[in-house]
Structures are given as C-alpha cells and as structure tokens.
Amino acid sequence: MTIRVLLVDDQPLLRTGFRMILEAEQDIAVVGEAGDGQQALEQVRALQPDVVLMDIRMPRMDGVEATRHISGPDKDGPAKVLVLTTFDLDEYVVEALRAGASGFLLKDAPAQELVQAIRVVAGGDAMLAPSITRRLLDKYAEKLPTGEEPVPETLHTLTEREVEVLKLVARGLSNAEIAADLFVSETTVKTHVGHVLTKLGLRDRVQAAVYAYESGLVRPGGH
Known about the structure:
223 residues, alpha/beta, 5 strands, globular, NreC/VraR/RcsB-like_REC, WalR-like
C-alpha cells in the first residue's frame, strides 16, 4: 500500500529536499505541496493524503491551527499530521500535539528517520518517544490546567489497572518497561493501552500522555 504524503512548509527548498528523500521510497508518494496552513487545508480536502508533513511557523495560518482543522478532536478524516520543528523543545509542539498531531520530528533528522516516521504515523502509531512528550509537557506545564479542575467523566470508565498503565505511559515508559513495572507480559500491556485509547477516544500514546496531564491524573514534574 502506498502512503500518500502532503508536504507543508513555507520554504520551497525544504519541500524539494523532503520530496527527493520520500520519492526514493517505493511505498511513499508525495501527492502535493503547500506553502502555508490555509493552502494545506485546501490540499488535504482535494488530495486526501494519509500523512501531512507539517511545518509549524508559516504565514496566513500556522501549523498548529492547520493541524487542529485536519486532525482535531472532532475530526475523523484519515490524514495524520507529523509536525516538523527546528527546535527539540519548541513551545508550539505541545500545542500541535494537543491539536491532534500524531508526533513531531526535527527538521534536521536523518533522511531514514523521516521515512520511518512517516511509515509509523501512517500505520496509526505515534512518532515520538513518550519520554519526549513528558519533557515537553513538563517544560510547558504553565500552559496546562492546574489539575484542580474536576476529573473528566471519561476517566471513570477505566479500570484500576488501566489507570495505572495510563500513568506509566504519561511518565514516558515503553510497553516493555510498563510490563516490568507491573509484572505482566508486554502483550497484556498492549491490550491495556488499546483499551485506554478506545475508552477515552484517543488516537495514540501521545494523546494519552497529554490527556493524563490535562485531566490532572499526572502532575508535571511528578508521578
């Protein structure tokens, strides 16, 4: 199956570079390009890509707003957004993740990492280590709710074990690490993570980690 990719960046030279890297792969096709968020939305509607490679800082409409329109909470279209950023801890990245992005990648990442990221995101997974998510959320904790807000009703749908698993996901542990921590098999952990995502209506581990912080289940800097 060919992964259809839309490139969104306000620098034509960067788009050309990304296109050359991606078109060398047999399972990836670049179906279009856009120079700003507004154009990106038009192209998503017209071209129906599987993955949108999204720059953050752009004229007319930035990548965060465009991401919200493409894959926000009320959107169920097929396109997944992979955000590109110049800095490892960009304050906009947290906003992009909350807006529905499936992950982020540094613009200077090796070519093979870019290709792998697109495959991972197209497959429905998140493309960033949960530990990076946690660093981002900790760093920009002041942008998040204080944790004094009422616990969302959806949290009550989880079993005690599922809540434990969600906390560990938010702390940045991998499935293998969670399995070791809870003395269960990795397969069991995968099942629990799947149940958590389904019950809470979340797309992937990234959104689960964000949810854990926003619901007050996990405190920034704490456990």
